[in-house]
Amino acid sequence: MRRVYKTSHQPLAWVSMVAFFSGYCGPVFATVESGPGFYLDEVVVTGTRSSRTLSDTPVRTEVVTRRELEKTHARNVAEALENVPGLQLREIHGKVGQEVWMQGVSADRVLILIDGLPMTATTGSSVDVSQLALLDVKRIEVVKGAGSAQYGSAAIGGVVNVITRDVEPGVSGEITVDGGSYGDQNPSAENTDLARYGARASMTMGSEQLRLRVNGSHQYSDGLDPEPATWERPGDEYDRNQFSSRLEWLPGSDQRLFTELGYFDETSGSRFLTSKAGTTLKQGKEETVERWRAVVGGEHTLSDQQALDWNLLREELRDDTYKYSAFGRFDQREASQALSQASASTEISAGEYHLLMVGADLHHETLEQTVDGAAELIGGERSRNSKELWFQDTWMPTERWEWVAGLRGQYDSGFGDHYAPKLSARYELTPGWAASQYLRASWSGGYRVPNLKERHFRFDHSQLGYVVQGNPDLEPEVSRNLQLGWGVNYLSAGWFEINAYQNLIEDLIQTQFDPQATAIRGDGVDVHRYANVDKARTRGIETTAGWQFAPGWELSAGYTYTDAEDRATGKALPNRPQHQARLGLDGMAGIPGLSWSVRIRNQSSEYIDTDEAMQSPGYTTLDLKLNQTFGDNLRVFAGIDNLTNKQRDFDNSDDVGPVSGRFVYLGATLGFGR
Question: Could you report the per-residue pLDDT of 46-91, keeping only the tens digit for each?
């Protein structure tokens, strides 16, 4: 639909890039053919639900490419997202794992998708992205700004969509193994022990009509312990296993039917000290997680102008925990969640420059949770249903303009009707020039229906002096998001983008102290309750730049400034650093097949309380990666994560910096049939 300019790494690019960064923006009349591997030539689908190259999409999008995943040896989605500008990976409170915050918006307002279909929130609020192993992942798309018009509730802050690779005919496969050590912070106190190791395997087989792919992953960690002789262990032990399969049937060139089955289990353990009645107790927590996921779907080309997609999703998640001390077990909590969704969409091409998409989703989820055998949800098992209808119109009135308008309407069983509009535009400032300049703008409305825990939870920690009560009278959160950016793309080999954003959230749901309920209780236990108490604003500026200046050589950088404010108090929202920076450099080492990568991450200090009284210091980490290929099917790799060994001060409760210190590892990937 939009013209795509082909480019490649040629010596002329060196001279032209000098002219470009010196301020020259006129046409360059040269024939430069494109080669593979350009970041801006990646095809993305999440922001507009239609295929666009990254440089052409009117919606602000970041991509973690397959090349980046291999260069940085990412094992799971959390590791894959570490270097994306504007994202934060935060520890999930009270459990091993990490969640995604985006543009100052917290994780329970960021939607995680697998091939466009939602994941069940591991904690009832947010998805633990460290649990998602990278099995045949093609790329990860990160869409900034409210995505409710495309994807419904819980997408106020943005969307992370993990895209898996197509199943190809023939027989092929690969296996990856790796392991490493935290040195003197290994829980065993032995520097050379394998404190963390894993294996991943994939195999594909099939013909032109019938194809099968199976994947498996095993990840294990002893945890991390700066003082192995003591009881406390700040880095949790875990054992994770994951399996997935996809079977495809292609009865014709215009039909594809598929079924997917996935399974995940995790056991983890943590150890900590608790002060009670003037005594310090050794305590621990054990957790088991089990997830089943099944998908059936189809893709049908009905004519040259129309296509139809449909999916049926069923996911079940069980999460059981208990705590223990020298006096025995307690707080044995059992949670069970289920998600069912039926989706269908059609796209209709109304001419070469007009695309209409219409879709519908039926959504049902349930939650049941007990502690020590007693129901922890008011009324026992709770459920929620929604019926959603959406449409999107993409229009290119001229070569310079592209407009995308969308609207989603949702009827929720507990909250009635809600609507989320979106309008995005892209304007080409210099069409046909080698240094292509463009403007992007998006305005969108978002909403988030209170989750089942916020409405019905009863979290009783009376022995620690507090309880948290759900609130069935909560109202949905509503947001307004604005994104405005300018960018320049030089032959896809070099680029610079600057983007300003603002999120205004009304009826933000937070926990607050309930003095009346506390007084009625009268036993010294504080009662907290979920409530629509806040109006929040997050705004800032993001910049990204990159330069693939020679084969195998690439420089990338990103900086994000965030101003997050509680509009009711005028104070900063906690856990949002004002400044974040990312820097990456990839190069060749002069030995055939040997390449290296450096990734630097910097984060400023951040408040960790609503009164701006406690502050966590900023930090900088540096990772070094090495890759050595031998032919087409063998790759040996090594790396040092957190080379400078920057780590939080565990004696300072205000410090929420990195838990893990320096980690040194070695691994190999062996493939066949490629």
Answer: 888 888 888 888 988 999 999 999 999 999 999 999 999 889 999 8
Q: CA 353 to CA 404: how far, in whole Å?
A: 12
Helix intervals (H) in 395-506? 452-456
Q: Which amino acid is at 613?
A: A
Q: Are 277 and 266 in contact (CB under 8 A)?
A: no
- List % helix, strand, coil for the chain (3-state, nearest 5): 10, 60, 35
Contacts of 566 (CB under 8 A, 6+ apart): 534, 535, 536, 572, 573, 610
Distances from the Cα of 392 to the Cαs of 24, 409, 447, in angstroms? 38, 12, 18
Euclidean distance between CA atoms 478 and 534, whole angstroms = 11
Supply 546's token pair: 């990159």
If DSSP codes are grouped into helix, strand and coil, which group holds residue 655?
A: coil
- Residues 6 or more apart whose Cβ sits within 8 Å of residue 278: none
Pairing of strands 579-588, 553-566: antiparallel
Are 385 and 364 in contact, with CB atoms under 8 Å apart? Answer: yes
Bridge-based pairing of strands 526-550 and 466-469 is parallel
The distance of Cα 85 from the centroid of its chain, to the nearest Å, equals 12
Q: What is the pLDDT of residues 378-406, one digit of tens each?
A: 778 889 999 999 999 999 999 899 999 99
Q: If DSSP states are collapsed to H, E and C, what string results for 461-484?
A: EHHHCEEEECCCCCCCEEEEEEEE
Residue 283 is encoded by which pair of tokens? 């305590």
pTM for the model stands at 0.90
Pairing of strands 210-221, 606-607: unpaired
Cα separation, 205 vs 202, whole angstroms: 10
Contact residues for 456 (Cβ-Cβ < 8 A; gap 6+): 367, 377, 378, 379, 382, 470, 472
Could you tell me if 366 and 382 are in contact, meaning their C-beta atoms sit under 8 angstroms apart? yes
Q: What is the pLDDT of residues 291-323, one digit of tens each?
A: 999 999 999 999 989 999 999 999 999 999 998
Rounded to whole angstroms, the Cα distance separating 135 from 174 reads: 11
- Alpha-carbon distance 166 to 66, whole Å? 13
Strand, helix or coil at 36? coil
Q: How far apart are CA 172 and CA 563, in angstroms?
A: 49
Query: Which residue from 477, 488, 474 is spatially nearest to 430, judged by alpha carbons?
Result: 488
Q: Phi first, then psi: give them for residue 82, nearest 5 degrees.
A: -55, -35
CA distance 67 to 48: 24
**Closest among 103, 149, 94 to 126, alpha carbons compared:** 94
Q: How far apart are CA 298 and CA 303, in angstroms?
A: 15
Q: How far is CA 255 from CA 213, 251, 252, 261, 317, in A?
A: 19, 6, 5, 21, 32
Question: Which amino acid, 256?
Answer: R
- On the 0-12 / 13-18 / 19+ scale of CB atoms within 10 A, 520 is exposed
Answer whether 265's CB lies under 8 Å from 218's CB: no
The whole-number pLDDT of residue 464 equals: 61
Measured distance CA(377)–CA(459) in Å, rounded? 9
Nearest Cα residue to 358 out of 399, 391, 312, 394: 391
- Count of alpha carbons within 13 Å of 342, Cβ hemisphere only? 3
Under 8 Å between Cβ of 76 and 134? yes
Tokens of 150: 């495309």
CA distance 123 to 460: 16
Q: What is the secondary structure of 72-99 as a DSSP string?
A: HT--BHHHHTTT-TTEEEEEPTTSS-EE
pLDDT band at 289 (very low <50, low <70, confident <90, very high): very high
**Rounded distance between C-alpha atoms, residue 427 and residue 538, angstroms:** 26
Helix (H, G, I), strand (E, B) or coil at 37: coil
Contact 245, 212 (CB under 8 A): yes
Strand partners, 439: 427, 486
